[in-house]
Description:
The chain is of the alpha+beta class. The chain has helices at residues 7-29, 35-55, 61-79, 85-111, 116-142, 182-185, 191-198, and strands at residues 144-151, 154-162, 178-181, 219-225, 228-245, 248-260, 272-274, 283-284. It has 2 domains: 7-142; 144-284, Cathepsin D, subunit A, domain 1, CATH 2.40.70. It has 7 helices and 8 strands. It is elongated.
Amino acid sequence: MEQEIYIDLFFLENLVMDAAILTASAMFLRLPLAWKKLVTGALTGSAGSCLLSLLLPGASLSAGAGASLPLCLLMTGLCFPCSTFQGRMLRLLTVYGVSFLLRGILYWLALLGLPVLAMTCGGLAILLLGQWAVKRLEHARDLCCSVRFRYMDQVLILKGYMDTGNTLTDPVTGNPAAVCGLPTLDPYLTDASRAILRQSPSGDPGDRETLPEGLPGFHYVPYHTVGTDHGVLPVIIVDRAVVRWQDTSYVLRKMPLAISTHLVSNDNRYQLLLNPALCDRSESL
């Protein structure tokens, strides 16, 4: 069965599609894309698609995908040049992924009988929603860090989270405090230390004579949370902690470590809540 292809319309269709794919890929990769590179890449992809349709008419999906790989590599290199193999592969996979996503969106919108303008707006809205979700995930990842410190003759390496809502400050040392759940420290505690941390504070937390002993720098710190008028948390002093955050290491001296009765995250994704102000009073490695 012969298939008629209007090469001019086929060229324009692929030109618009390739421009949309490259633009969306630049959004996901968070890379700048000059309009000259965009036009060059879209023209190259459209011309290459026309050439492949003439040389390989009626090719299978696997054959078409294999033949289009050099073309996709060329488009990616023109628009997103990179000197490393890993970077080139990341850009190539992103372009391929966006291509399948966008073509699939337009296909299903076409089945609904929507006009071209509505299809375009719908596809763009879904892509923007995906970009927003990616940014949210990246933001959450950027707030995670690694914390290493010595406690009870053990070196602990815990995952921390820079909680911008954590303004807990130790009134004794004047330093911002981190918060850790008692279940995280429980395997390293002695029976006496565990009993001290689990007991309810008695008397005025500021009265040093009524406070138990046995833990480094042990005292209580008042705190306020949403739905809680007031309360106190037991605090110990960590002589030295190293925080690895956003490719920078920070050394924290005399870090107050407040201990809550429960884990600081329900799924134990992280074990410490850190006050971002801690890094302002630290030393960089």
